[in-house]
Amino acid sequence: MQPYYITTPIYYVNDEPHLGHMYTTIAADVLARHQRLSGKDVFFLTGVDEHGQKVQQAAEARGIEPIALADQVVARYQSLWPELSISHNDFIRTSSERHHKAVQAMWCRLENAGAIYKGFYEDWYCVPCESYWTETQLKDAKCWDNHHCPDCTREVEKVQEETYFFRLSAYQDRLIAYIKDNPDFIAPESRRNEVLRFIEGGLRDLSVSRTTFSWGVPVPGDEKHVVYVWIDALTNYLTAVGFPEQENPTRWPASVHLIGKDILRFHAIYWPCMLMAAELPMPERVFAHGWWTVEGEKMSKSKGNALRPADLLAKYDADVLRYFLLREIPFGQDGDFSFDSLKARHNSELANDVGNLLNRSLAMLKKYNASILGDVGEEAPMDRALIADIEGMQRDVDSLLNRQAFHLALERINSVIKHGNRYVEDNAPWALAKVGNVARLNTVLYHLIESLRLIAIQLSPFMPKKMAEMLHQIMNDDVNIDDLRLIDCAGWGFLQADHTCQTPAPIFPRME
Ligand code: ME8
């Protein structure tokens, strides 16, 4: 089986999960589910980033130990993911022993490669951004890393300390060449160009240890230093696949690192350079998606307008949220979350289009043939056109999802659903029933139900529970969505004459 290894960022435990964390994780889940359905051997990783000054400070502010804070937030994530049908294979915590070992092994590997040296550091540090700046990179003596912290104009701290450096500058030319030779490595295109411009501006060696706080992994052989949180965090992608027990883990490299645009520099520059130094293969792809605003405003802790999963799930079905988040904005671009557009999309695309096609088809089958599929007669051009459209859609969805174009994949599926609704109008089964054209009526109803089955399978990575319900009505049997494989079920003609479907029950009741 072809392997497929997909990751989300590991989320900081200084904040509770919010819409942004849901978004990346749902997107990764759709890809994991699609690839499993396609027969790949999927490993889907998510988890939490527990170390660093930011987490230590958040814990101090609450008067608790960092690990106690981490435990609380981990519990939130671990109860949230099943509610959203997230099908991860592993959940990594950076405080775990396996990860400590991996970080220390990575450190030694970098050191043995001559990529780490000890020096003295005098620079400015922005704690919320976990980033170092030189004097000239500051604006009005404040941080302005407007990617990682969108409204960051915060005070920076002067740091003067003995530190270890990673020779980032030594890999600059190799990294530029690599990015140029591998056009699919960083996506979307605009982000790739941004990264190239940044590297071409010159890379400075990176300070990779701190002595001013202790919440992290100690540097091997020099325990007063703690490994810089990003070296620690990025290594999680190797920990989970068995590094360092496996020096070159068989599941490595990752097929895709899915991230937000805020952490592109770390994944597209630091991480590849670390891997080059450690002589490990590059991830195949780093995709940086855009940022959500809420009703036109940036989400922020200070404004208190961050959308929390519990509030969303109290109002909306998890699958409807999954669908909306991936349908509403082209993946890679920024977008706005509004309750009005969620309702509008739900009512038009889910209730009206797919919901209606399912309902009317099953209702006609019940009315005209006691819910039993009849024999298929000779195929008309209209029937062949519908089948061809379905088969084209199956191929297109696969190639679109292979480049993370979720919105286009959904558009393509929706175009087939519209085709199905047109097919109903064009064939007017009620008229066929009226004139007693049973052969043609059976053929039309079969084409509708078989199309719906194949549509539900293609939509199942996006809406696993809803599509399990839809398939249940069609198959008249429980369908284990997680075990479906295209090779067994995606061919036209799977349903047989004499199969009995169920009486329809609306799966997307209209939102008022
Ligand atoms: O950066 N819109 O963790 P983090 C969309 N621990 N996505 C958003 C978002 C928004 N408004 N806000 C956050 C860290 N995200 C590090 C990562 S990885 C080795 C270490 C999502 O808790 C998006 O995926 O700040 C972003 O990259 C991530 O949350 C940052 O999560």
Describe this structure in words.
The structure is a single chain. This protein has 512 residues and is α/β, with parallel strands linked by helices. It has 2 domains: 3-290, Rossmann fold, CATH 3.40.50; 338-489, Isoleucyl-tRNA Synthetase, Domain 1, CATH 1.10.730. The protein contains 18 helices and 16 strands. The strands form 4 sheets. The chain has a 6-stranded parallel beta sheet, sandwiched between helices. Helix 2 (53-62) crosses helix 3, helix 13 runs parallel beside helix 16 (438-459) and helix 14 (406-427) packs antiparallel against helix 16 (438-459). It is elongated and about 90 Å long. It starts with a strand and ends in a 23-residue tail after the last helix. The model has no long low-confidence stretch (mean pLDDT 95).
The fourth-level CATH homologous superfamily of the largest domain is HUPs
Overall form: elongated
In helices, the fraction of residues equals: 40-55%
Rg computed from alpha carbons, rounded to a whole number of angstroms: 26 Å
Strand percentage, roughly?
Answer: 15-25%
CATH topology of the largest domain: Rossmann fold
Structural class: alpha/beta
How far apart, in Å, are the first and last alpha carbons? Answer: 46 Å
- Whole-number count of domains: 2
Tell me the total number of β-strands. Answer: 16
Low-confidence stretches: none
**CATH architectural arrangement of the largest domain:** 3-Layer(aba) Sandwich
Order of adjacent strands in the largest pleated sheet: 3-2-1-12-13-7
CATH hierarchy class name of the largest domain: Alpha Beta
Distinct bound molecules: ligand ME8
How is the main sheet built? Answer: 6 strands, parallel
